[in-house]
Amino acid sequence: MTPDGPTIVEAGRRLREGKTTAVALLESVLDVAQLTEAIVHAYLTIDREGAFASAAFADEELANGRDRGPLHGVPVALKDNMCTRGVETTAASQILGGYLPPYDATVVTRLRQAGAVIVGKTNLDEFAMGSSTENSAYGPTFNPWDVSRVPGGSSGGSAAAVAIGSALGALGSDTGGSIRQPAALTGLVGLKPTYGTVSRYGLIAFASSLDQIGPLTRTVEDAAVLLEAVWGHDPLDATSYDGAYPDPRAEMGRGVDGIRVGVVRELSGEGYEPEVETATANMVDRLAGEGAEVVEVSLPSFEIALSAYYLIAPAEASANLARFDGIRFGLRIPGPTTEALMSATRAEGFGPEVTRRILLGTYGLSAGYYEAFYGQAQKVRAAIRADLARVYTDVDVLVSPTSPTVAFEAGARVADPLAMYLSDICTIPSNLAGDPAVSVPIALDGRGLPIGFQVMAPALGETTLFRVAAEVERLAGFTARPVIDLVAS
Amino acid sequence: MPVDVDIAYVARLARLELSDDELETYRAQLGVILEHAARVQDLEGDPHVEATHTLGLENVFRDDVVTASLSRDEVLAAAPEARDGYFVAPPALET
Amino acid sequence: MTWEPVIGVEVHVELSTRSKMFCGCAVDFTSPPNTNVCPVCLGLPGALPVPNRRAIEHLMSIGLALGSEVSSRSVFHRKNYFYADLPKNYQISQYDVPVCRGGHLDITVDGETRRIGIERAHMEEDTGKSTHVGLGGRIHAASATLLDFNRSGVPLVEIVSRPDIHSASDARVFAQELRGLVLELGVSDARLEEGSLRFDANVSIRPAGSTGLGTKVEIKNMNSFRSLERAVDHEVSRQIGVAESGGELVQETRHWDEEAGVTHPMRTKEGSSDYRYFTEPDLVPMTFDDAWISSVAATLPELPAQRRSRYQEVGLDGRQAATLAESPPRIRQVFDEATGLGADPTAAFNWLSGEVVSHLRRAGLESEELHLGGAELFELVTIVEEGLVSATAAKEVLEGVLTGEGGPREVASSRDLIQVSDATRIGEVVDAVLTANPDAVAGYRDRGEEKVVGFLVGQVMRQTQGKADPRVVNELLREKLASQPGGTPATG
Q1: Which phi and psi angles does A76 have, rounded to 5°?
Q2: Which CATH architecture has domain C423-482?
Q3: What gap in Å lies between CA A121 and CA A173, rounded to an integer?
């Protein structure tokens, strides 16, 4: 089958034209899920009851003239690391099997206020640690474009659901590329907004200084719709930005004439697939053809960004995941003492990648190693920010591939953590800087696999980011959809 | 050269009860990852690091106002073991 | 060899804010277990902390009162350790950039004042409460820990002294003084029995006269002034015992066992002190500018030390000033009003610390219930000075005032206590007494018996029902005795 569902914006138009209803939209995405879940496994939980209740309510409101805006009645999915009151939330971990949060994450509250219909909770790498969605305790998600391949990660479930059409849009979380890389690998738009603009309250933390929630959608405009619904100051998150927010739509459609585009020298070369490099170069040329001033820029600190990331993120994670101890919620493996209980519970409840990162983070913070590892990584982070501040005096945006490769074969990198970590090499600098970045699909490679193009902007630069992303989207004219062989699989 | 990690010590700090085989696997993997991560030491210069928010946020506080707590029943419903309104854990030390 | 103890004290003070440090749950220790809890203070997945501004201002008040420097910039850190009553398994605390640095607290022991340096004062959150119980009722049944998280996240200030303390009793006095200070500031209830004040101490010894530092032992788990003093005392003796028997002291943490009255080593867990501090990424830096610091400083009440020196300036001696400085606010208010009107400070102090306090005690009244204003005390002091009533009668006057009979002059008059100071009238009585007691007169005149004067004064007072002004009586008696036939008394 080939999914033929509407984009968010199209769905909204049809709803308001009376050509469909929220319930009908929900039914159609559930039909897709029904057909594809056994093959793709995008969802961990589908909340049929809750979704139908919201959809019926959304229809009733629209009938009564209450219109909550462009997400009203639109079926969307949530990565399963965002807390939903009374709906199982596991972060794809055994340690949270069956966990029912007593509260909603702020993004969930905001989606509900915007009238969105939450279909369910999508699969991810356990605690968002991974780049393939193979590290889920509940089984991997596969890429709708080629089900022998991974959808990327960690928001692979959200990406697969939107790509196949079992949701019209989804929220993911991006700590080192976990929205953008799966978006690239599944032919979607994936946005990591400026750090602090989307509340993290209720997002099960991986690395607090890097985590940011953002949309995965089919189009740039859909991304703006989802972003506008969820971002904004939240008093429950002390890192939430309380100043003036940029307007993502303000310059969409104005083209790139006069926009200064920096091509990052360090994000190319060894390890990058030729077709990815070619597609990227072609897009850069086309942007130049539209009047963009293209320059090559060098950010030497990017060379060691990955190393810094793999010290900082695990360090924060080692503390963030300490609360999973078998005392107040979640899995408990009994033991004669508190320590024995905790140690047994955690060893049993966490999968290998999570265990590895907790060990890595604990080591990097421990007495005697802090300065050489975690402390030094913070210096690299400072250097990246300084490098970026320097280049952003000369350019408006930076561009690169989103991922050095297209979707890889399932299992190919599982045994080699370092190879897996290299999947995030292009996306990590924006997380370390706290800057916004977006992946836009630009082409299919020779095997029919999507290639993503990354645009990065300085903090709160979403207006320019969306302007350039919209132009990339227009120039690429990427309209391909995956084809799933429902029988053969 | 892979970094030599006292993996048993780290696992104990992190409250992870791992078998000897697991410890050995993680020791080897961490050694390789840390060898790569040690490239942070190649950084030229010694930038001053001060904790800052990307957007320069400072002094974010809440007013001293009481807000609703959760219902105890709901809280304890998620607990692996509870009694008389308390969470129950084994003793801190072996008895 | 004689040894000098070197002691530093760490005091944990729970602040009496309405809500917790990082969430809106109520700070209330009377609630049933686990009713003041939310995702934040239970450490549920996804919850985030937001700091309580008032708690930070309370800490600033403490720092300012201790003469600390309030940092221009400060951050929170995570202190990582696993414990069942620590929900996140890390405590949000402060590490290398505390809110307050430096300062001092003066303690006065036996009239001697010693200055104890303050290292730092920082903000952190309290843990939940563990209760260890036996289950099943059988003697050897497995025990368990019951966990209540109502206390989890209550704002906690840690105040660390410099190692400037050299005796267990000074450690106690330091802690008591600090308690007085936080009470005065109104930032904590400082209820020891509820554990809102807790103490740790760092103890080492060195040969008297040397300036080096010995091996430091941290002792924990002291919840009262008495246990602080006992624990330090015990630890000092233990260390001296080890040193003198040629043993070696090890740097360690020891637990104070209140029942047994001893410290013993905490079970040393591998890496238990590897706290892996790092900057709390869920919170942003705090900055303190002059405007904020001075607005907090402006709310500070007068502190005991400041009051002590003020009272000394108005003329009280050190001991009186100290006593008054520690007295309840109502007593100090009466003093300030009375002396403001012109009452002699020493006289006002004597009345308040003597008769007034014992009246309150006898009547079982709180000082707030005192039925005496500053103006009345001034009047009382004045009529004694004027000689309108005798010192003895004045006590009766005060009693009348305190029981609501009216102002001092009114009571003196209604109780008929106004003393006679008219020399002519008193002279007549003196003459009569001298005539009636020739033997006494002779004893004074011939043998210089001084006690005779006292006896004769007593006689005059009796005849006047105590209303004669004793000074006048004394004066007239001596005058008339001297002029008795027989000349001047013998001197001897």
Answers
A1: -130, 165
A2: Orthogonal Bundle (1.10)
A3: 13
Overall number of domains in chain B:
1
- Residue in C49, C51, C88 closest to A322 by CB: C88
Given CB atoms, is C362 within the 8 Å cutoff of chain B?
no
Tell me whether A359 touches chain B (CB under 8 Å): yes
Residues A372/B35, Cβ–Cβ less than 8 Å = no
Nearest chain C residue to B59, by CA: C286
ipTM of the complex: 0.96
Residue C128 CA to residue C108 CA, distance in Å, equals: 36
Measured between CB atoms, which of A322, A329, A386 is closest to B47?
Answer: A386
CB pairs under 8 A between A and C: 108
Which sequence spans correspond to the domains of chain C? 3-296, 302-414, 423-482
Q: What is the pLDDT of residues B2-32, one digit of tens each?
A: 899 999 999 999 999 999 999 999 999 999 9
Inspect the interface and report whether the beta carbons of B72 and C37 lie closer than 8 Å: yes
Mean pLDDT for chain A overall: 96
Element (H, E) at A56: helix A48-63
Element (DSSP H or E) covering residue C319: helix C318-325
pLDDT bin (cut points 50, 70, 90) of residue C267 is low
Taking residues A190-206, report their average pLDDT.
98
Q: Is residue B51 part of a domain?
A: no
Token pair for C420: 């006679």
Residue ranges of C 88-127 with Cβ closer than 8 A to chain B: 89
Q: C345: which residues sit within 8 A by CB, 6+ positions away? A: C311, C314, C315, C316, C335, C339
Indicate whether B91 belongs to any domain. Answer: no
A94 φ, ψ (degrees, to nearest 5): -60, -30
Is residue C56 within 8 Å of residue B61, measured between CB atoms?
yes
Residue B1 placed within a domain: yes
> B9: which chain C residues are within 8 Å (Cβ-Cβ)?
270-271
Contact at 8 Å (CB) between B91 and A339?
no
* CATH code of the domain containing B8: 1.10.20
User: Which tokens hold the place of B93?
Assistant: 């030390």
CB contact under 8 A, A365 and C278: yes
Distance, CA of C375 to chain centre = 27
Q: Is residue B92 part of a domain?
A: no
Catalytic center residues of A: 79, 154, 178
What is the arrangement of strands in the sheet containing A117-122, beginning at the earlier edge strand?
A: A43-46, A117-122, A75-79, A169-174, A212-217, A189-192, A437-444, A450-456, A397-401, A260-264, A293-297
Q: Which of B15, B18, B49 to mutate to test the interface with A (most CBs of A within 10 A)?
A: B15
Largest CA distance in chain C: 106
Residue C135 has pLDDT above 70, yes or no: no
